[in-house]
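Moderator note: this is an archived Q&A kept for reference. The question asked for a predicted structure of one protein chain; the sequence and the answer are reproduced below.
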Amino acid sequence: MNRNSMPSVAIAEDGWCSGVLREPSPNFDARPDGVEIDLLVIHNISLPPGEFGGPYISDLFMNRLDCDAHPYFDQLRSLRVSAHFLIGRNGDVTQFVSTNARAWHAGVSVFEDREKCNAFSIGIELEGTDFLPFASEQYEALAMLTHALRVRHPLRNVMGHEHIAPGRKTDPGPFFDWVRYQEMVASALPDDRAEMLSFPFSHGKSPR
């Protein structure tokens, strides 16, 4: 990916991204006053676990999941969660929450001695599991979206859910290629080294 092939998407002042599907979730609230949005958190999700392509992830984030549709869903009846973005296996992007608002994706978490990472982070879910590689289309969409987010917000770090909630979460897991992702982000703006994001291995975390 290079600057000439970077798709034209942008995050507007209201925190909504052009060129992607919007499904505004009710599961969000206001960020604390004066907070700087400087962390991007990468997750994976599949519903039911290990199955792709259904409507269930969006349904979960929209509080419309039919919890009788699959035995696994019974444990999700009272869950109220969201992410800012979901990237499907084919690279399609759906936005659920404005990046200006606080989505409910990280849960109990800490980064650089700051707790409650939802307050200062943006959450991106990749449709996937800890046990399978992610699709090339997903990396391309993630790099595109990361670039757009960097333009709009003062992002300085990208971490996995596993890095901010160790022992509790394992995603995006061992099949997420952090080096590939970093290289794709870097190649988007090769002369922008001074503003490069820090990745897990910059903080002594294993890129697996």
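Archived answer notes: Confidence is low (pLDDT under 50) at residues 1-6.
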